[in-house]
Amino acid sequence: MKKGDKILILVLLVAAICFALFFFLGAEKGGYARITANGEVKAELPLSEDTIYQVETEEGFNIIQIQDGYVSMQEADCRDQICVEHKKIHLTGETIVCLPHKLVVEIIGEKKAAYDMVVG
């Protein structure tokens, strides 16, 4: 291995470590879970309160649990059960989606943006 190869590997390793630290340490914990079905907001539930919330739509039902600041899909009557098998979420921007029921659970941060959009 040449000296240039070692330097390149070192630079890539440092970049990967910096990215990982920024991604994991810089991620904001969410403030609440927004539950949307068919594009309509059904509920906004704080992550600080343990609760179980049931959503019923024409397509079926989903049971969402908030416990210890984490959100999970506990039960659903969809065929594939991908939403139920999804890991618990708690960071801003994370989502659990149930496509058959057109249901989205999204973690929203406590901090709200001071502006809606930037026009250049």
From TrEMBL:
Superkingdom of origin organism: Bacteria
Name of protein: Uncharacterized protein
Organism (species): Anaerotignum propionicum DSM 1682
InterPro entries, per database record: NusG_2_sf
Upper lineage: Bacteria, Bacillati, Bacillota, Clostridia, Lachnospirales
